[in-house]
Amino acid sequence: MDDFANIISIVSGLMTILGITGIVSWSLSKEAGQSISQASMSIFAKSFKLALCVVSLLLFLVVLREIHFAIVLSVGEGWMPGSTSDPNFWWKESGWYAYVISYFINILIGIPLYALIASSIFTWSLEPFRVFWKYLRIR
Predict the structure, then answer these.
(1) Mean pLDDT of 66-85
(2) Is the torsion defined by CA of 129, 130, 132, 136 positive or negative?
(3) Of 36, 90, 33, which is closest to residue 64 (Cα–Cα)?
(4) 101 closest CA partner among 58, 61, 69
(5) Where are the beta strands (DSSP E) in the chain?
(6) What are the φ/ψ torsions at residue 42 (nearest 5 degrees)?
(7) Cα atoms in the Cβ-side hemisphere of radius 13 Å centred on 12
(8) 68 neighbors 88 (Cβ within 8 angstroms)
(9) How confident is the model at residue 41 (pLDDT cuts 50, 70, 90)?
(10) How many helices (H) and strands (E) does the chain have?
(11) How many CA atoms lie within 13 A of 101 on its CB side?
(12) Dist CA 78 CA 22 (whole Å)
């Protein structure tokens, strides 16, 4: 009975530390022969990398907003609201072409660049950028 109570105590402690999603991801990613401490450190590392991806996404969205702002100002009518809560920041009928150009450029730049950033965070290296650069140079 003591062993059963110890197992319940360990599982409840892990659920407290890792959370329910941590336990689920731990059970899905646990490798054979891996101890509980190795598995929990692996989950902590993955959680840390995910948090870095979220923070970098927020910073990246700020940069994309500034690019949008600059493109709409330079290509469009020369005016747009500074606040993102104003609907004219996202779309205005009279300068629609500037918004389309801005969204097109932001998508072309944003998706590949953020995918490379997230890949670099999860692999913890700059290898995704090197591979991308290698394929860009192939003629």
Answers:
(1) 83
(2) positive
(3) 90
(4) 69
(5) none
(6) -65, -40
(7) 6
(8) no
(9) confident
(10) 5, 0
(11) 13
(12) 49
> Are 76 and 99 spatial neighbours (Cβ–Cβ below 8 Å)?
yes
Taking every pair of Cα atoms in the chain, the longest distance, rounded to a whole number of angstroms, is: 76
pLDDT, the chain, mean: 81
Residue with tokens 């606040």: 83
Q: Are 103 and 57 in contact (CB under 8 A)?
A: no
- At residue 29, the pLDDT reads 59
Instruction: Say which residue the tokens 């101890």 belong to.
Output: 35
Check residue 132 and give its pLDDT.
92
Q: How confident is the model at residue 83 (pLDDT cuts 50, 70, 90)?
A: confident
Greater confidence (22 vs 72) lies with 72
Report the predicted TM-score, pTM, of the whole model to 2 decimal places. Answer: 0.66
What lies within 8 Å, CB to CB, of 14 at 6+ separation is 22, 23, 26, 36, 40
Among 66, 54, 69, 53, CA closest to 123: 53
Question: Judging by beta carbons within 10 Å of its beta carbon (0-12, 13-18, 19+), is residue 134 exposed, middle or buried?
Answer: exposed
